[in-house]
Amino acid sequence: MSSLDASVWGRLESDKPKGDMLVARPSVVGGSSRLLAARDSSGLRHFLVRIDSEGESISDVEMRGLIIRTRHFVLSGSEQGWYIDLVCKDEDGHTAFDLLGGELGKALAAGGLAPGRAVVTVVARWKRFWSEVSAGKLSREAQIGLFGELWFFRTWLLEAVPAAEATAAWRGPLGARNDFERHKYSVEVKATTSLVRHVHVISSLEQLDPPENGHLYFFSLQLREEGGATNTLPLLVEGCRMKLKADAEAFAQFDATLARAGYADTHQGAYAELRLRIKSERLFPVNSEFPRLGVDRLKGGLPTGVGGVTYEIDLSPIEHVSLADSPETGRPILSA
To answer: How far apart are the first and last CA of the chain?
Structure first.
């Protein structure tokens, strides 16, 4: 996955368009001349995708953080043509917008799809993020959940498998059933700040069902909120990025998934206020001893009229059967 070179926006800052005018530059992503980066008089960022005629236009779309429309532009005083105009409405979406531009540039350069179809295909993969981008910063509960996933990703999975495999395995924010999915196993990650019991909330009956292939593991992270703790969500994000910086594709994939999880760097000051200490971390096998509900364990299935079930599990009675309690002891299991 490629990301737009963010310096293009800086080069556009010096030009001050007026009214409905835009200033635009080639995006230099993927080698396609059809993609331009642009700014308008309000400072909003645009991607312009050149199409060959109005007949190739696509229907206008407006999401919370993104507008897509087909417009006719006159460029350089005389050159004119039709463009699909993608507008980022919210600065929280800038990182994701750059990643979207990178995907667009690659798709256009590959030439397998008409420009309009390339836009539709790429945007479809980002629909969930752009539908939620203006929701603001993550709730405290969501911050703790994301912290748990990133802690497992950085300190456990990246120590066991190559960066590209680790980033490809992080599937939860993309709508997968489990947070991490590999060919031989899946991992469901839960983080809790409960100090009395080792309790986690399970959001559905299907969440702890075994995968079609391989094993299901449950990673439990117990946290304590402390003013003097050294762990914060922004520091953990930066730690992941540092570990991935040698692999540009893995780095871009990580940032794309992070954006779909709802994380934006613009809120890192607020996120840094939540300081967490690691109380315990354990990897469990989800087997016959593991406390779970499932459709397979309910005779006759759910009662008529019950659309779903959320329940709590307490791992205190089975802590002794965990497979690993540190990245070092978990590495042989996860490297399979």
So the answer is: 25
